[in-house]
Specification:
This protein has 14 helices and five strands. It starts with a helix and ends with a helix.
């Protein structure tokens, strides 16, 4: 039931809302009419009106706008002379599927505008430019996001199964009678998944850079630090699952049930802004959402640590909740 709801509402490539920003250097009757046509569709929602081209980067990097529409100052004059005039559409290439669908919408609207205003003559054309993925190659946006996604899968399984397996074999009771505290036992259970996760990230990162030739624009230190913070939050979730599970089979079931919603609500393949509001709110409790966003920005944009630091806050909150919860569960339930 949960997966059918999520696939129905979250896993969709249809765009019901396209937030965009505009740079109207023409400020003419035609340019205002065109932008009004976009706003009137109910799909395109203008979230920012920029004053110059220098503000475009901040609008896209902050994820406020999915695209920026720029109109030159000579737009009206070219049309009046019967010459071709172009509208530049700058899209966020970090999500290729969303960018391609949004560009298709823009092209259709421009075609209708030409048919009504210019008698079918294609005087207005669309010039497209995709930032951070100029050729809109799908794997450029997908594979950097998989660095976090595959780490999530492995860490949830390893952290969850580590304690459950010892409980089934009866060796966990032996750990409880040692001088080690519950916190120290959990730290010992958390370190191996983290180390294996770092090895896995290195392997996937090497594949992206050397096998698929996806250029790495950011700092390796920033990327690994981001991945480490993300994995620590995942370890807390995995250990909490292990604490409430009586067997390895229960861990497998709980992990599968939790893992699918986390992936669907991460924004890895489908845009979060087009999900129902309730699901958008739910994504704030999903560390994978912020892990995917931060790693993509470091890898494709070359973002600095300061530019992605806000993503660490929700991941830190998840860590601050799940790790103490796991300690409490082990202390009160298993002992």
């Amino acid at each position: 039931i949960l997966q059918s709801i999520l696939f129905g509402y979250a896993a969709t490539y249809n765009l019901d809302r396209v937030p965009y920003a505009s740079v109207d250097n023409s400020r003419s009757k035609t340019s205002v009419e065109f932008l009004s046509r976009l706003d009137g569709t109910g799909v395109f929602q203008r979230v920012q009106t920029l004053m110059n081209a220098g503000e475009i980067a901040g609008s896209i990097d902050s994820n406020k706008a999915m695209m920026v529409i720029s109109i030159d100052s000579d737009f009206e004059r070219k049309l009046a002379e019967g010459n071709r005039a172009s509208i530049q559409v700058i899209t966020d290439g970090r999500n290729t599927m969303t960018a391609a669908v949004a560009l298709g919408y823009i092209t259709d609207i421009v075609g209708e505008f030409n048919a009504e205003r210019n008698g079918g003559k294609q005087l207005i054309s669309v010039e497209t430019r995709a930032w951070y993925n100029p050729n809109l190659i799908t794997r450029w946006s997908f594979l950097p996001g998989m660095i976090a996604t595959l780490s999530l899968v492995q860490i949830l399984m390893l952290a969850g199964l580590s304690v459950a397996r010892e409980r089934e074999q009866g060796t966990f009771d032996q750990l409880l009678v040692t001088p080690l505290s519950s916190t120290e036992i959990l730290i010992g259970k958390a370190v191996p998944p983290l180390l294996l996760g770092m090895l896995q990230i290195t392997f996937i990162l090497s594949s992206c850079m050397f096998c698929f030739k996806i250029p790495m624009n950011g700092s390796l230190f920033t990327l690994y630090l981001t991945a480490l913070i993300f994995m620590i939050s995942c370890v807390g979730i995995g250990l909490s699952i292990s604490a409430v599970s009586a067997s390895m089979q229960q861990v497998m079931v709980y992990t599968f049930v939790l893992m699918m919603p986390m992936i669907l609500l991460s924004g890895l393949a489908t845009p979060i802004c087009n999900m129902p509001e309730a699901l958008q709110i739910a994504t704030y409790a999903n560390p994978l959402r912020f892990g995917v966003e931060a790693i993509r920005r470091v890898y494709l944009e070359g973002s600095s640590l300061a530019q992605i630091a806000h993503n660490f806050v929700p991941m830190g909150v998840v860590t601050a909740v799940t790790l103490p919860l796991a300690v409490w569960l082990f202390r009160n339930k298993l002992t």
